[in-house]
Amino acid sequence: MTLAGAAVALDPTALPQGLAAMFAQFGNLWQNAAPITRFTVEETAFDCRGTAPAYADLVRTGICQPAATATRPAQLLLLDAPGPLWAAPYFQEREVEAALRGTPYLLAHDPDRGFWQAFDRATGRGLQFMRGPTGYPPWEPGSPLRNFLHWQVLGPRRGLIHAGTLAFGGIGVLLAGPGGSGKSGTVLAGLLHGLSSVGDDYVLADLEGGLALRPVFRTLKQDPTGAVRLGLSLAPRAANWQGKLQLTVDEIAPAALVPQITPLALLCPRVAHAPRTTFRPLDAKSAFQALAPSGVSQIPGDRAAAFALAAAVVRALPCHAVDLGTDPAEIAGAICDFIRRGGV
Predict the structure, then answer these.
(1) Domains delineated in the chain
(2) What are the strands of the beta sheet with 212-214, ordered from one edge?
(3) Where are the alpha helices (H) located in the chain, listed in sequence order?
(4) What secondary structure letter does DSSP report for 292?
(5) N or C: where does the chain have the smaller number of CB atoms within 10 Å of the terminal CB?
(6) Who contacts 5 (Cβ-Cβ below 8 Å, separation ≥6)?
(7) What distance, in Å, lies between the first and last C-alpha atoms of the chain?
(8) Gene3D superfamilies under this entry (predicted)?
(9) Residues contacting residue 238 through CB under 8 Å, at least 6 positions apart
(10) To 10 degrees, the CA torsion angle through 147, 152, 154, 159?
(11) Per-residue burial over 101-124, b = 16 or more CB atoms within 10 Å of its CB, e = otherwise
(12) Residues 6 or more apart in contact with residue 3 via CB below 8 angstroms
C-alpha cells in the first residue's frame, strides 16, 4: 500500500494544508492496515492498526484499561515507514504550534529518530511514522502513545500532567518535581506500605466539578540503587535509557492502582536524608515550577493549554515541600498520616 508520510511534503509556511493532504489518505490506508490492538482510555475507544505489532505488548503492559463505556472512537495508524518530508532546515516546535493554532491538527517530530506523530482532533485520527517496527523513542515503553492519549483527552480543564500520586481511602496527594527529587521512590515506598495510587510519571487531571485524578499508565521506574533501598528484587531485567528498571504496579502491589482519587495537596519532595519526613508550606510559584516544565516539554503540541492545566491544578490545591527521610516505611507512614490529618 502507499504510505501517507512518504507521499507528502510538509512546508511550515503551509502546515495545515500539508497535514490535510496527509490525512486525506488516512481512510484508504486504514482499510488495508493490519489490526494491532484496541484499548479504552477516558471513554475513548482507541483502535490501532498498521505495521508496528510491538505496540500490542506495549499497550498491554503499559496502559491502564479500566472497565468503561466508550462514547467516542479514535483511530491510530502506527507505521514502519518514512515520515513526511520536512521542507525546512529545522523542525522548530514553537513555530509549528503557532502555525497550527486554531486548527484541529497537532504534530510532533523527533528528527534524530525520524519519528513522527500527527493527530486530527476533529476526527480522532492519528498517524505515526518510524524507522523500523520498533523505531519508537526509548521512553515509549513507559508511557506508550502518550502524545496521542493527551491530545485526544485534552480539554480546557483536563489532560495529562507529569506527577506521581499516593492515596489512602480515595483521598490523596500529587507528587511533583524534577528527576532525582525522590518522586518515584516516594510512590514506590507508599505502594509497598499499603497506600494506593493512580500512577507515577503521568496521570490524568480532570478539574470539571472539582479536581479528580485518574490512571492512564501502569508503569513505574526506579534506579537499581533505589530498588535495593526499597527492598525490591527486580532482576533480571534490562535498565531503560535512563538507567532505571521498569515495572508495573501489579508486580509490587496488586489492586493498589485505583480508578480515581481526590487530591488534597500537591507535594514537592526532596531527597534530604533527614531523620524523619517533614512537611512545610510551599508557595504556588515554586509548586508550579516543579509541576509544569517537564510535562510541557515532554508532551508537545499545545504548550499554552498544558501550562494552563498545570496552573489550574496548582491553584486548586495547597502546596507543601517535603523533606524526605531515609526509611521507606517511615516515608509512607508520614504521607499516610498527612492524608489522614486532611493535609495539615
Answers:
(1) 5-153 (no CATH), 159-340 (3.40.50)
(2) 158-162, 202-206, 212-214
(3) 15-23, 26-32, 55-62, 93-100, 146-153, 183-192, 224-230, 249-252, 284-298, 303-316, 328-340
(4) H
(5) C
(6) 22, 79, 81, 82, 83, 84, 116, 127, 129
(7) 61
(8) P-loop containing nucleotide triphosphate hydrolases
(9) none
(10) -60
(11) eeebbbbbbbeeebbbbbbbbeeb
(12) 29, 79, 81, 82, 129
- Cα distances (Å, whole numbers) of residue 276 to 122, 267, 271, 323, 331: 51, 16, 11, 8, 8
Question: Can you read off the three cell numbers belonging to residue 156?
Answer: 480546557
Contacts of 300 (CB under 8 A, 6+ apart): 93, 97, 106, 107, 108, 147
Q: Residue 14 carries which DSSP code?
A: G
Tell me 71's DSSP state.
-
